[in-house]
User: What shape does this take?
Amino acid sequence: MRIVGYRVSIGALAGFAIVALNLSGAALAPLIAPYGQADLVGDVWAPPSADYWLGLDSLGRDMFSRLLYGARTTIGIALLITVCSFAIGILTGFTAAVVGRWIDVALSRFVDAVMAIPTLIFALVILSVLGTSVPALVGTIAVLDSTRVFRLCRAVGLNIAVMDYVEVARLRGEKLWWIMRREVLPNALPPLITEFGLRFCFAFLFIAALSFLGLGIQPPLADWGGMVRDNAQAINFGGLAPLIPAAAIAQLTIGVNLVVDWCLSIHNRPHGLTA
Assistant: This one.
C-alpha cells in the first residue's frame, strides 16, 4: 500500500490502525460506553460477562466504559501537553539558533540545568507544591518536556540558520518571527513531526506513571494509569482488572512508535520512495 507515493509497511499499517482505533474510541466514548465512568453497576471485580464485557473494577464500575473514558482523558491531556511543549520548545529553540549570542547561551544553560534533574523527581516536587489539578499537570509536564524539544529545535535550527536563503532574508530586513516562521520552520518539519510522536508517547506514559503514583489525573475522571493503581490488588486474587488498562497503555505506545518508525524511514530514505 502507498500513501502519497510512499510505500507503507505492514507494521506501519498496524500502527495507523491502532492509533485510529484509540482516537475513535476516545472521541466516541459517550456514545459507545454502556455506562458512565463513575457508575456503580455491580459487584467488585466481577468477571467479564455479556453485560460487562471486560468485567468490573475495585468499586464495581464497568471496565469497558472506564477504558473508553480513560482514553478520552489520558490521550487528550497527553496531546495537549505535547502541543504546549512543542510551542515552547520551537519558539525558544529557533530563537536561540537564529539570534545566537547571549540569548543562545542563556537559554541553553537554563535548559541544561533543568535537564540535569531527573524528570520524574522534578515533576513530583512541583506537583506536590502546585497540586494535582489538570492545568498544573499540563503546565508542569509541558515545561519539563519542552527542554527536549528545545535541544532538537536548536540543533536543527543552527544548521538551517547558516543557509543562503536565511542570510538573504536577513539582508532583506526580515524580522526574527518572519524568518523562523517562513524559513526555518518549514525546513525543520520532518524531524519535528517524528519527534512529536515520540514526545506524545513520553507524555502519555508520564501521565500514566504519575496517575499510578497518585499525583496524576484525579478521580472521578478515569485514566489508564489510575485504573492500574485502583485495581492492582486484583492480581492477588487472580483477577485481570489491572492488566486491561496496562495492555491499553502498551498497545497505544506500540502503535504510535510503529507510525514514528515509518516516518523516520521516509525521512532517511533518498527521495522518500522505494523501488
Notes: DSSP finds ten helices and two strands in the chain.
